[in-house]
């Protein structure tokens, strides 16, 4: 079995608590690293990427809030939660203002810990869900899987297109896992989540002393993926200045760390993805044509869920069993009919969200149509009352406006709880953060 690619950093100076948290997270299928101090935590964060961090507030050499601030100041894409003493909510509020997304109180409830981790990483059968969406009898998914097998045998760059929620990252992982590079790293990067000022150091690394705060050498994404696969998600969001540097790195197969005069060779296979029309971005002048041709050597399109109608009953049954393994809920005939007829603008991710919510709302283990809370058909793809693009408004500005309105509405409906808003929108917590940062939503 392939090792989990999700990595958690646990920061606590008490060995017993550290071991308890580590064992709990390992049982959830996660890779875990530990640190016993602020200094050790910063060192670990600077050396390798993490998908989540958990830190105690009181540490031998400082406060856990220093780790929170370090993550924010360095622009690291690491959601962090703090563990605080019972009844000490002031520390928790202070940490959340500094950038923490949630907190746990001591003594730590393992059930609450698992719930918190699942809300951020969507683990616990996450691999099974990913495998499910990339399997089926529909001709469209069968063709995609056939292409995945062919692309895995090549070393050329792959460009994966498709709507949000269609499994582009899962397809990229399958290509990597079936390739000759399977034993080497798979490094996923969300290009839209990295501040432009930090892009060069994040992609190519830096030497100690290259800039203020560079306390040690650090590998960039290219060095981390050396010998393996670098997956560039939402590649359309790369600014033009970074596109030039990425093109050179791909062409020369060499990168230069900030603060280093010498280039170093890297052996990396590039797989990229976006839900945007990259060819249209080239025509609009916001994406370099030469980089587009370098990335779009082997194309792969991931089909939307509405093209996989034959597999919907199996997807629905599997997800219901996943969300309620002890007592599988029954779907009322009208509810099943509604699910089979729905258009799923959010694709598989939306289907997961609909069924998870329905299981929670259902009475007597019977899901009725109202429990599904499906979007009205006009919001699910009809053009009748769809938002209109204003005169002279660029397409991307229009799409950003619609996305911003949807996020703000979800935040208002959940009293600005980002985790719940993400669930309502059918996206992961991390994706929610990326979108809010990109759109400037505070």
TrEMBL record:
CDD domains: AAA
Domain Response regulatory: 7-121
Residues annotated with 4-aspartylphosphate modification: 56
SUPFAM superfamilies recorded: CheY-like, Homeodomain-like, P-loop containing nucleoside triphosphate hydrolases
InterPro entries recorded: AAA+_ATPase, AAA_lid_NorR, CheY-like_superfamily, Homeodomain-like_sf, HTH_Fis, P-loop_NTPase, Sig_transdc_resp-reg_receiver, Sigma_54_int
PROSITE patterns given in the database record: RESPONSE_REGULATORY (PS50110), SIGMA54_INTERACT_2 (PS00676), SIGMA54_INTERACT_4 (PS50045)
Domain annotation Sigma-54 factor interaction: ranges: 134-360
UniProt cross-references to Pfam families, sorted A to Z: AAA_lid_14, HTH_8, Response_reg, Sigma54_activat
Superkingdom field: Bacteria
This protein's UniProt keywords: ATP-binding, Nucleotide-binding, Phosphoprotein, Transcription, Transcription regulation
Protein name: Sigma-54-dependent transcriptional regulator
Source organism (scientific name): Chromobacterium aquaticum
Organism placement in taxonomy: Bacteria, Pseudomonadati, Pseudomonadota, Betaproteobacteria, Neisseriales
